[in-house]
Structures are given as C-alpha cells and as structure tokens.
Amino acid sequence: MSLLSLESVSVEIGDTKVCHHLSMGLGDGEVWSILGRNGVGKSTLLKTMAGLRMPQRGAIQLCGTGLQNLSRRERAQRLGILFQDSESLFPATVLETVLTGRHPWTSAMRGESADDVDRAQQALAYVGLGALAGRDLTSLSGGERRRVDLAALMVQEPRIALLDEPGNHLDMHYQVAVLGDLVRDWKAAGGAVVAVMHDVNLALRFSDHLMLLYGDGEVACGTIGELASESALSRLYGHRMERVTTATGEWFFPV
Amino acid sequence: MWLLCGLAIAAFVLALSVGSVSIHWAGVVAGLKGEATSIDYAVVMQLRLPRAVNAFVVGALLGLAGTLMQVLLRNPLADPYVLGVSGGAAVAALLAILLGWQQGLVSLAAAVGALGSMTLVFVLSRGRHDWSTTRLLLTGVVLAAGWGATVSFILAISPDAHVRGMLFWLMGDINEARPGPLRVAVLAVSLLAAYGFARSLNLLALGELRAESLGVNTGLIRLGLFFIAGILTAAAVTLAGAIGFVGLVVPHMVRLWGGSDHRLVVPASVLLGGTLLVLAELLARTILAPSQLPVGVITAFLGVPVFLYLLRRSSAGGRP
User: Fold this and answer.
1) How far A104 CA sits from the closest chain B CA (Å)?
2) Residues B265-288 pLDDT 10s
3) B268 touches chain A (CB under 8 A)
4) What's the CA gap between A224 and A198, in Å, rounded?
5) Measuring CA to CA, which residue among B225, B271, B214 is closest to residue B246?
6) Local structure of A135: helix, strand or coil
7) What is the ipTM of this complex?
8) Helix orientation angle between B133-157 and B85-98, rounded to the nearest 10 degrees
C-alpha cells in the first residue's frame, strides 16, 4: 500500500492545466522531487496532495484512506507541509513557533506538555538553532527562519513530508547538511518525502524519483535512472542542459 | 495576569473614591457594604460604581473584539470598528435621536443597525468560492465609509437641538446605564469561546494555509471570529457609542508586554481593556470638573501617543 497515492488526478488553475489524469504512488522510504518551469503549477500540485485544495478530478489516498474521509487532525498527524514562504502576523519566539507543529498531537484544553517542549528543543538543536529558542522570530535571518519552519515540521512528526522549495534562503552548507540529514532520517523512519525543487542537482542528490511537469497537463513520473537525461531536462526547462560526470557523480548544468 | 487583576481592582478603588466628593478607600469599602453615611453610599453605589462597571464592561468588550478582529483580518491595524459595525449602529442611533426616540430605543436602534451592518458585510464579502480576508476587509472598509457619509448627512440636516446629543453619542460616552445581564453574558461566552480556540488563533497568525495544514478548521474559526467580534462590538457600541482606540491599542499593549500566545492575549485584553476604560472614565469626569468630557475624547488623547510610542518601539526592536 502506498503512503500517498494519486488516482487519475487532474488539477487546473484557471485555464492552466497542471496535470491531467495523473496517477502515482509514494512508497515507504521514497523521496520524490517535482521539477518544472516557473508557473507550471508545482506548488499547486503539492497543496493538492496535502488536501489544502481539491483536485478537479480524481482521488487522493493517504495511507489507504481517501483524503476527504480523514479529519483535519488525522490528516495533519500523517502528512505535513513546508510552505515556500513563511509569515508571522505578531511577534512570537522561535520556540513558540516550533511548538505550533505539535498542534495535531495536543488537545485544545491541555496544551503542550514538557515532552512537547523537549521535542521542540531537540528539533531546534537538530537544525542548528538550539541557542535561539527564546529569540523573537522577526529578528532572524531568512535562512534561520527557514530552519525554524523545518524544525516545526519535524515536531509535527508526519510520515509524509511535502516540502515546497526547502532550500529557499538556505546557504550551501545547510542545503546539503540539514536537508540531507532530514531526508535520511525521514527515510529511515519509514516515511516519505515529496519536494518541489528548483535546483536539479540538489534534487538528484536527495531523491530517488522525479516528477517532471512539462506544462499543459503533461507529467512524467519515474526513477532518476529513467528520467534524469539531457533530453528530458532540456525539454523540461526549454533550455539545453548538459550532463557532467565528476568523481562525486553526475550533474546537470544549463549551457 | 495577577498583575492585571491587581491593576483592575486598583482602578476600581480609584474610580470609586476620586471625584467631586472625595471618599477615602475605607469609605468606599463601607459604601459597598452599605455601612457608610448616606451621601457616601449614594455616591459610591448609585453614581460611581455603575459608571465604573459600565466602563469596565465596555473596555473589556472592545479589548477582546480588537484582539479577535486583528487575527481575523490578519492586520495589526484592525480595530473593532473597521468593518463598519459601529457605522451601522451610528446611523441607526442618529436616526432614532432625530426622530426623538427615548434613550432605550436609541440603544435598540443602534443594536439593530450594528447587527444589520454586520450581516450586510457578511453577505457582500462572500465570493462565489471563498471568503478572503482582503475581500472582507475591503467590503467592511467601503461600507464603513458609506456609513460615515450617511452620519455626516444626518448631522447636516438635523436641527441644532439634536446635534449635541448626536455628537456625544458619536464620540462615545459612559453613563450610569447598567450594562445588563445580556452584555455581561455576551462578554463571558465570547471570552470562553475565544479562549477555547486561542491555540488556533496562534496558528492563524502564522498563515491560513499553515493553520489548515496543522489541522485547524480555518473556515469555521474565521466565521466564529467574525460573528463573535461583531457581536462584542455591537454590545459595546449600543452601551457607550463608538469609543475609539481601546480596541486598537489594548491588544498591542498586551502583546508588547506578554508575548503573542493568545491563551494569554485573550484574557489579558479583557482585563486591560476594562481597566483602561475605568481610568479613562475617571479622567473624563475629573480633569475639567465640574464639566464632564466624553470618554471617547480621553481614550483618543491617550491612545494616539501610546500607539505612536508602540510604533516607534516596533521600528526599533521588531515589535509589535
């Protein structure tokens, strides 16, 4: 049984087709990257997978149950999403923000326990922000703020993590180190990850499957071995891509 | 929280003892027990206590309404009146004054106007598919502007004999009218409801989609916020007119001093809103005694510098 499966799903934004009768299954320990040009609907597809937007046609199953048959709380316990950007209306501390990730696991009246606070502090240490727990969120840099959001997703403990451009604002080190650790641990725990990526090489480094959104509803799904080719990526971006082989692996660059 | 409770009690003692007849706090306690001289008893029980209770209830209603409205509209500048609830009440109240209706009927007209305006905003702001914050805010602001123009029109065509009463109503004033059990019940039920979904408010402040992804029924919460904030505002406006600044400034003061967790902000806004209005009412009847100023003038005089101070702090330190 797939953790997340799309059955003949069609998604449209106005007149733009994002996908047309798309079917795919996300298995335990799999990591998928969604690639495509700007405005092709990558984030919209991710939000549809998260149940935050209804597809025009088709069905989405989460751990064998239709998304619409799960309560919001049950859905949030199984599936979490990291959004492309974060917002904050009022000042809040880093720890308070990370603790919001525990919402699906706490009751309205009881609130967060000492155990929840421990988990939040561990997650902050994991993303290298252990010393900033008491800091005001508005005083953080973009990269630090991104890591706070990743920590909040970690304490939510969903089996499926949907990441919208997780490398946004992160420097090279954190892109490779934090995302690498996160993906490795998620896979080890029997979870799965779907990430919208802008950087093809980052996608190839962490994923085992690709979903290429060509536009006008055409989507190709497959393993890295099947889809990571000069011709497929050149067609995807409308720009010639060249494969370069180094001692550390195969990489793609625009010519 | 205990500090705020202490402040509220201190404000009450001050409001009961200070005035044209000064009463020692021991006299206030005796007055409340019914043991004081007849003058002290009359001053405390029949004049000052009703006004102080009135001021506290109105301030609490506005403080809570402002807090909820700022989360609903995702705008720190929102106040209880931004969606035109007070404008609808004002138009109805002024028409009632123009027709020479009694005080009780003026309040009833204001209530009908407030609830009617709220319903109108609700119906007009719902799109075919969604109920977006921007659409709600713009609909409310445009309707409020329409009510404002109507108020000016009524003032322009009204005979002079009615205009003074109308202006006092518009500026907001606290009198000896009892808040009544209905308003106290509105406050209590709203406070309990808002406290019940305070954690959802924390998530809503981080974004509607994010809250939804964490399991919050954002549609239901926003609908609840709209109606609760609207009814709180209607309850306040029908008792004391449109007293400004309390609903705007109080939530910011609470967040500045106590952080943004709505499990604290919600009850603290009730206590601080009430306390501030008790003190404003005290100033309104003492600084130019024996003349009595509309309390809305005092809250504006206090609110403008306080808000500017908060804005300066926000540019200096990232808050509020």
Assistant:
1) 6
2) 999 999 999 999 999 988 888 887
3) no
4) 16
5) B271
6) coil
7) 0.91
8) 20
